[in-house]
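Field log, afternoon session.

UNIT: design team B
ACTIVITY: writing a sequence onto a fixed backbone
BACKBONE:
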């Protein structure tokens, strides 16, 4: 028996096949092999075509299922992970009305702030645990205000994972966890937020049918089965936004457990059993995938949009003259530079409005440049340290809310492949870091097995999850990183 995990990202879509008996990934791949394009028709806009995600999933599945050692007919359940906060709009025939407005689009910042003030900050925080901000509901309000002819065609709104589930099953469904990330969920009353629907003038019929994060969400229809090369009737049994799913992938399910990622964006995600919120909405609380009627489970999410994106930008600049400097080579250059980059500071805020900066879009900065001292290695190291310090800045907010931890779990990938990044992260946050061999697609496959009922406990669900490395703070480096962080913060103009 196999479980199939789908992870729909803004850079690529990943697919993983998990063996139910061993709990090990049999194979995984991603598509496209280069980074997926993001359309920006105006400054601050970020859009993608939803049918492109489906095409990527099909291509990745075809690649996996062409292998002799993978029998697609053994797939029994499918789990879906997806880029959060996107807006997909379909008409009555399930046709796309307009391109998806994705997570890093900042067009709705002002709309969300006005709603926060008009509804009332106390009401928003008590019911929604967040400002409406630049999230899915506010993006839909932008469509209503600016593209009324398109808004009138919308039958259902969905998150990116809901769209993939629709392509698989032919049914429009969503989850309460998903609605919470769109700021459409009332935590106080445990229902779709009537307050926000009323304020934005949305009819409740726009919201698809609710299904559980873990459980039967539908069956693969005839058309999807033919397109993917799997059996008709395979169950879709799990769905989660990429950050809740990443946490679940790392066995972060209970209060006091914390996960981190540092891909295109960087995230620290802490699980709590309380309806907590940050008064300034610098971090956000969403419903975790492990939430049940009996046991409240929320995830407090700190996000920095420009983490790995900054590092790829630096590499891209260095490779414009026909060079091909690899990430490991960049890491070696950074390793030749002292902690603190000899005073060179970089702020990774060049990928849209940052929630941790109260939705300000201050752009990326390089500060304290000394032409006589600073070389390429300084730029590379200051980029890595700048990413860490931005995450540390938000981690301190989490600590103030009482939802931090002494151990942070992460997958060994992206920025966590860099020894310099890991060293800076561990000693700046003063927390142990455990690195695991997993990713979002593998996690979604585990979720599929749990949602199907094949795995009946956490122990069974995470059988096969491998701890690769453990890092602890080093007393002789903590002060140096603390001083570098204070220098970084000194240049942060807010």
């Amino acid at each position: 028996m196999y479980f199939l995990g789908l992870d729909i990202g803004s850079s690529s879509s990943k697919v993983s096949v998990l063996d139910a008996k061993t709990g090990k990934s049999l194979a995984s791949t991603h598509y496209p092999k280069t980074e997926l394009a993001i359309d920006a028709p105006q400054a601050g806009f970020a859009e993608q075509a939803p049918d492109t995600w489906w095409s990527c999933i099909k291509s990745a599945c075809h690649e996996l299922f062409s292998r002799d050692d993978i029998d697609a007919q053994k797939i029994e359940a499918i789990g879906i992970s997806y880029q959060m906060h996107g807006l997909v709009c379909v008409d009555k025939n399930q046709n796309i009305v307009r391109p998806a407005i994705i997570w890093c689009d900042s067009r709705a910042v002002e709309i969300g702030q006005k709603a926060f003030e008009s509804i009332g900050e106390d009401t928003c925080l008590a019911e929604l645990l967040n400002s409406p901000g630049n999230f899915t509901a506010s993006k839909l309000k932008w469509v209503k205000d600016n593209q009324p002819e398109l808004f009138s065609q919308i039958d259902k709104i969905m998150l990116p994972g809901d769209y993939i589930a629709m392509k698989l099953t032919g049914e429009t469904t969503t989850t309460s966890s998903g609605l919470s990330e769109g700021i459409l969920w009332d935590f106080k009353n445990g229902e779709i937020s009537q307050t926000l629907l009323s304020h934005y003038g949305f009819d409740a019929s726009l919201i698809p049918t609710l299904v559980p994060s873990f459980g039967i969400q539908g069956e693969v229809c005839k058309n999807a089965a033919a397109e993917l090369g799997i059996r008709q009737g395979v169950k879709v049994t799990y769905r989660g936004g990429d950050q809740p799913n990443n946490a679940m992938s790392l066995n972060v399910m209970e209060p006091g457990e914390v996960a981190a990622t540092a891909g295109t964006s960087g995230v620290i995600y802490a699980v709590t059993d309380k309806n907590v919120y940050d008064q300034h909405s610098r971090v956000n609380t969403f419903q975790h995938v492990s939430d049940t009627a009996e046991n409240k489970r929320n995830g407090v999410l700190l996000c920095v949009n420009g983490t790995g994106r900054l590092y790829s930008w630096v590499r891209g600049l260095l490779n414009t003259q026909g060079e091909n400097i690899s990430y490991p080579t960049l890491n070696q250059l950074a390793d030749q530079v002292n902690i603190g980059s000899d005073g060179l500071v970089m702020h990774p805020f060049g990928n849209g409005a940052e929630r941790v900066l109260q939705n300000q879009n201050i752009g990326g900065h390089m500060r304290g440049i000394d032409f006589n001292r600073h070389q390429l290695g300084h730029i590379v190291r200051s980029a890595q340290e700048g990413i860490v310090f931005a995450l540390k800045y938000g981690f301190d907010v989490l600590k103030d809310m009482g939802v931090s931890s002494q151990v942070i779990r992460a997958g060994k990938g992206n920025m966590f492949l860099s020894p310099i990044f890991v060293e800076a992260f561990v000693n700046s946050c003063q927390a142990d870091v455990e690195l695991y061999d997993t990713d979002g697609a593998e996690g979604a496959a585990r979720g599929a097995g749990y949602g199907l009922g094949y795995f009946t406990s956490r122990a069974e669900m995470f059988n096969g999850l491998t701890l690769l490395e453990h890092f602890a703070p080093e007393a002789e480096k903590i002060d140096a990183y603390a001083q570098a962080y204070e220098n970084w913060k000194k240049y942060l103009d807010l």
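LOG NOTE: The CA atoms of residues 396 and 429 lie 8 Å apart.
NEXT ACTIVITY: expression trials, pending approval
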